[in-house]
Fold:
Amino acid sequence: MRSIAEARVEARRIFDRNLGGWAWSAVQGEPAERIPLALNLQPPTGDEALDRVAEMREWSSAWHDFAGAGEVEFATRRFRYLGTQSVPVRLHLEQPAEVAAFIASTAHWRALVARLGELVAQWPDMSRPDAAAVRRVLDVPTSSWSHVVGFLRWSADLDLSELLPRQIAFPGVDSKWFDQNRPLLVALRAAGAGTRRLTTRQIDSRMLVRVLDPALRAEVGGLAEFAAPATELARLVWAPGEVIISENLQSAYSFGDRPGCVVLAAQGYAVEAYGGLPWLQRAHVRYWGDLDTHGFAILNRLRHHLPRVDSVLMDADTLLAHRSLWAREEKPQSAQLPLLTASEREAYEVLLSEPNARLEQERLPWGVVEAAFGVSVAGRELR
Structure:
């Protein structure tokens, strides 16, 4: 027996899934998909009615008294010991607007249709935006919507690719506003709200470099650490013998001086940048990431760019020896990773089979790290 509240939950689920298509159909004057909608009210069987008499009567009475959007369909049923009953069987909702009214979302529905209508009036040949963009259209505050339409109209034929958002000269648009609304603006432009692709100049991400060798530091003006875009790092004329890539920033800062060594840190999945560093191709590269499914996915991706990279502390022995330090991986991945070594693959398979098998690199005792790398940590030399 589906109560009014439960019917609203189901109607909300259907409404949210079909919102973009329904609103677009309303703007275009076309029939909407999955409309009319008939919600099954799940009337009881004879045995259920007999076992739950009071509940059935309360449920039936609520639907008989229902005065909201839609039309309740009743059927005459005869139940053993209970006689003939008028039982609610379906709620019919004929239009998306009626579904919206039933779930108390009329204002949102009207706002979305009005906003999409405004876009189509400006760009009649515009195609339907994707579902995520439609949701963003609805989420734009009322005070900001005019800026969205105005900016799209103003920039429709402009090339902004050489400008930072800070340099865009449109009233009411600053870098914060642009960054917040960029996904929507890009999606609407792609759907036809303007002709020129919406791109702006982006500040290049910086890669952290720690120089552990005093001789190498002398080659970069005495700097022990610095950050620069990969395109600039590629122009360095030096030859580190060893490069350690650490996914954890604090781990990267834990290494003391080491002859011929450089540490790079915290690029995550963006490992393509490493492949563009000529001096990295010539060095012995050691990767140290978390012992979790994403750590191995990053390592596998890195080997597409640096095939000879070795991993450190990313094997089954390390994982199993520190079971007490495991944590749960909230969003594991399970892709095939063909570039892992046998010991790495063994650890990866443990991670796939054990939901609580995640070992973050920062949890490993420093002594274990020192022994694995054979280097000083926090400035202490191994003896």
Summary: The chain has 17 helices and nine strands. The radius of gyration is 31 Å.
